[in-house]
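Write out the bound-state structure for L4XM7KOE.
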Amino acid sequence: MMKLKSPPVNSLSLELLTEFAISLEKLENNRACRGVIITSSVPKIFSSGLDITEMCGKSMEHYTEFWRAVQEIWLRVYSSSMVTVAAVNGSSPAGGCLIALSCDYRIMAENPKFSIGLNEAQLGIVAPFWFKDTFVNVVGHRIAERSLQLGSLHSAPEAHKLGLVDELVPEEKLMEKAAAVMAQWLALPDHARQLTKTMMRKPVVDRLVAHREEDIKNFVTFISKESIQKSLRMYMEMLKKRKS
Ligand SMILES: CCCCCCCCCCC/C=C/C(=O)SCCNC(=O)CCNC(=O)[C@H](O)C(C)(C)COP(=O)(O)OP(=O)(O)OC[C@H]1O[C@@H](n2cnc3c(N)ncnc32)[C@H](O)[C@@H]1OP(=O)(O)O
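---
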């Protein structure tokens, strides 16, 4: 099991992304490890998505390093040879949702206050093509398009209805259910499951691998724009105001 632990809200900072990638690599290289459940040890939050402070007021070099780390974590989770189950035990916007979408199966706590989705448009930013492709592969083109254009965050019941999560279970049963799903998936021979997974996911993975540097350049150019920086600053202010 891998538990995201970066209070208060599990923002995906460069440091957390780097630790996450190293832990995944260790598991991937351990032949005895055939599956991983990804969850959070922060109450009510799976992950608040990419750490916005990493994308605000920093240098081009920093944006480059940060985006490479974001790409890396997606590539590792999406193309993992292990069975990956997301036990979504709290809200999961944007980058948090991407982590869950990249797993093989998603189980969410059935709490209507928890929400999940790719809400980038609400921040005035655009989910890159590989976020979009991952989303389309889970919910289909129409639902993904509407949800992305509106930057929707879906409540747990709504997310289940749309197919964004596979199952809802009472919060106290979440880990038990995740373990049961893992056992079901691990009952199959690894090679057949792994080859099938690769067949389904390879075109999307290959697309980023082929355009990785271009994608970094696009990100750095986009995020460095003063209008985008202003949108991000306003969003952070809104988060702080909402609190007080
Ligand atoms: C032409 C095409 C080119 C394309 C190029 C690419 C373009 C860029 C693509 C970038 C993709 C971005 C992906 C992302 O993930 S962006 C992040 C999106 N995340 C969010 O919108 C979530 C925001 N947070 C919340 O909604 C709430 O915090 C949450 C529901 C998660 C929890 O609520 P709660 O009430 O429990 O906690 P607070 O809101 O009080 O938060 C506590 C403190 O944490 C700070 N915070 C929250 N989220 C973030 C974050 N994502 N990054 C950094 N900091 C965050 C919040 O401000 C509070 O701080 P303070 O205690 O200091 O006030």
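---
The longest strand covers residues 35-40.
The chain has one domain: 2-243.
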